[in-house]
Structures are given as structure tokens and as C-alpha cells.
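ASSEMBLY PREDICTION REQUEST
Request ID: AP-0331
Submitted by: J.K., bench scientist
Number of chains: two
Total residues: 576
Priority: normal
Notes: Please return the full assembly, not individual chains.
Input sequences:
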Amino acid sequence: MEVAIKVHDLTKCYPNILAVDHINFEVYGGEIFGFLGPNGAGKTTTINMLIGVTKPTSGTTFILGHDVTEEPVKAKEHIGVVPDVSGVYDEMTAWDNINFSAKLHGVPKEKRATLARELLELFGLYERHSDRVDTFSRGMKRRLMIATALIHEPEILFLDEPTTGLDVQSSRQIRDMIKELNRKGTTVFLTTHYIEEADQLCQRIAIIDRGKIITVDTPEKLKTMIQAEHIIEVSFDHAEGIADELKRLSHVRDVVTAGDKFRLYVEDPSETLPFIFHFAKKNHLKVTSVNTLKPTLEDAFVKLTGLHPEVMAIEKEHVKPARG
Amino acid sequence: MKTFKLFTMLTHSIYIAENDLRQSFKSVRHVVWSLLFPLFMMFTFSFRYGVSEPDISFLNFLIPGIVGMTAMFGSINETMSIVWDKSLGVFDRILAAPVSSTSIIIGKTMAGAVMGVISALVLLIVGSSLFGVSFVNISFVLLIVVLASFSFTGIGTIISGLASEPREAMMLSNLLRFPMMFLGGVFFPVEAMPMPLPYIARALPLTYATEALRAVMSKNMAVVLFDATVLVAYTVSTIIIGSKTLMRLMTR
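STATUS: Completed
Returned structure:
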């Protein structure tokens, strides 16, 4: 398989923090590759190094064979980028935004208008092409950002948190568009802190935490990695302070709280279940629900990173620029 | 191949500059600061002696001062686009495009200088036609306006390279522009200022711009040449420092 992106020992060191710590991976042509990790894990720093916006402290990135540090302009010709903040001019029309991008990417003059129109139509924005972007909804803005990133027909598309801050419907729309683009042959590199999203979209996932890649694999393989484990999800009418006691039950390897439910990682549910009921009876608790679960990607993530899934739900604080 | 590269680089710069300027003319914030504010200052100060009896010698002093000041406001405002671009994420997007950093710097500098010159010329036309002020030698006036605009652009890029967000940039630039406006010989002659203000005034590029514009009118070529030289020195040094701050911004 053709290698689209090759990353070797990539490292970024800021004065107080090692943001990205000697990471290695390859992205193959034609796949959707996801970078999954909590905020602050180094996802944006990595993407910025891959697209040549941030200089790595050490290590190399090759985009279709071009070293990003050595020949940045050549490497950048093949990529389209959708940053996690807006990335489009609010005071300009959608049309002017996409045209500016076309000019910067050296799209020949005679092709600009046709391509821009095609893309805006594809993303359902053509009727609004002469409206200023500050009149757009977030979802529309994000669609426009993707359209502008595609104007030069790049082989690789980078998306930094493509659905963060969007409503459910817009998110689904964006995901469908990413899948559609990929079906047509575009290689996609995206970052996300939504485990679900990574599971639905990506052919392969790199799990990153505190600047280190923990593992790279397909979502299904990641799930089977912990298949040996079973999960019992149980809830009681009172839940205060019993997590530790549950952990002490025999055959229970680990307990993770998820809302008002407890997830018990066990080897054999039939072995453990009687203990749970016994525990409830002894402590005068009522069992309100019991389920046995197949491991999800979230479980794999929790297992691999040791992070609580709620860490992933912490949204990044976007500083909204105030108009002066 | 080399000339082709240079050509692409320049085309990119022009795209960036054109895009910046186009944005600015559509933005209310920008038009207010670059044109309405200087016009307002011009009218306010021109009424010093009442409308019925316009003081020609004072207007001959005031209008060239305002023209220099407008070049300053126009250029510095335009360079603030860098900070807006940063806060919008557009700057990263431009960086991710196959465009060399030099093109970006040249483009932003061109935009700043062009905006300074355009705004100054608007004020010059309005001022000279409304108040009957003659600039005598327009090519020298243009030369000074261009040099001044470039030196203010350099200052602007330094500020926008240092500021992390738009409000900080506005604060920093006003901290510089307002004292410069009152000490740069726009409304009061530098010689009439109490000590040690003339020394401060002599450190400001605006002082040389206003002095040179007036010297063109009074055909004092020695002063014009001297001030032009100082402005060239300012332009070269501020643009070098400005490009360095921008370069640092682009290679994080």
C-alpha cells in the first residue's frame, strides 16, 4: 500500500512541556486515519507539525515523499487543511473565501469559478455564496471550511476536530461528507476526542495521550484486544461510596463509574453475578439494572490509556475573538 | 526556474495583499479608524479660528500634518489584519498553503503600505480641495507618503507579531499612535513644545513625515532630503525587525 504520510520520531518540546514525544506512524493512501485522545494530548500540535505550521523540535514528516521541513511548499501542494478554529474570514462572502483559497493554492483562473461552484453545491452552500460568513451557522461555517480546503483537489485532507461544537445533525452531515470524500479517494487524517466518531469514521486509529502514541490499530482490533474481558454494568438505588467495595469483590478486576452505573471488568460474568447480588443484599441495596456488555471502543480506550472516559468529554475552551 | 519561482512568490504576495485590502474596505472598524477619524480631526482643528476667517498659514501647517498622521493610522490599522487572521485561524490556513513565508511577509507589508498611501491621499485630496492648500510638488509629497507608510507598516508588523490577540494589538497600537499623533508635529509645531518633548518627538517617524511634507510646500529641499533619509532608515529597520517577528510567528 502507498504511504501517504510517514512520521518518524516526531517531537515537539515547548519551554515547559513535552507536547509530542517521539511519535512514529504511517498513514496509507486512501484511508481515514484518526488521532484519538483527550484535550491536551498533543493532537493539534501533531497536526500542525504535519501540515508545516509548527516546526518540530526533532523528527521528520513526509507527505507523499516530501519532507515537510525541507520542502514545505512541495509538501503543502498535496494537502488541504481544516483547522479547529474558524479558518475563514467572517467579513467576507463564502465565494470570496473560497476564491482566496483557490488563488493561494495556485488553481488556474479559468478553473476557479467552476470548482468553487461545484464544491459549494456539493456542500449545500451555493445559494448562500454571496452572503457574508458571519451570517452562517456553525455547521455551515464548518462545511465552508471543508469546501475551501478542497478547492485545489488535494490528495490528503487534514481535519482538526471536525465536529467539535456542532449539533448532532451537523456532525452527522460532516461525517457523511468525510466518508464520501474518502470513498472518492481522498486520504483523510483527522483528530477527535469523540470515541464514537473515531469508531464510525476511521479505518485505523492512533490513541494518543500526553504526547505519546499508545497504540495504532483498527477499531475492531482494538476492541478484540480486550475481548478477553467482560463487563457487567450494574446500577443500585443508592450509589454513594460503593465503588471501592465493588472492587473488592472476588473476580472483579476493575470498576469504572459511568453516570449512575458501575462497570465491572470481569473474566466470567456467571462467576461474578452471584457475588453482586449477595453484596446488594448485605448492604440493603436494590439492584435497579444489570447488563452484560460487549467491549466498546471506549472500553478499549479506557483500558489502554487508563483514562476515565469523562476526561474525553472536556471540551477545549475556544477563545472567541472579540471585535474591537 | 528561478524567475518562475520569483514570479509565483510575487503573485502570492499580491493575492495576500489584495485580499487584505479588500477586507479592510468592507470593514466598518477599518474605515472608521483609517479615514473617518483623520477627517474628523482635520475638520475639528481647521475650525480653530472660526469658519468665517480661515487661517491660511495654520491650514498650511495642519493639512500636511494630518496627511502624515493618516498614513500612520492607515498603515498600522492594516497590519492589524495579521492579528485578526491569527484569531480567526486564517493565518494558520495561509501557512498551510503552498506559499513561502517570504510571500506572506511581502504581501502583508504591501497591504499596509498601500493602505497608508491610499488613506493619506484621500485626506490630501479632501484637504487641499476644501481648504485650498497647495502641496506644490506632488511627486515629492508622494515619495514622503510612501516612505512614511512603509515605516509605519514596519512598526505595525512588529506590534502584530508581538500581540497575542486583537484587543491586545489595538491597545498596543493605540498606546503608540496617540502619543505619536500629538508629539509628531501634526497639530503643534515640535519647536514650540516644552522640554524634553522635542527630543521625544525627534525619535518618532511621524515627526519627520510631517516636517518633510511641510518642507515640500515651502520648497526647503535640504530638509526634505534629510527627512526622507531618516524615513528610509526607519523603514529599513522597522521592516527588518517586523519581518523577523513575523517569521518567528510563522515558525512556532
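REVIEWER COMMENTS: Residues 318-324 of chain A have pLDDT under 50 and may be disordered.
SIGN-OFF: pending second reviewer
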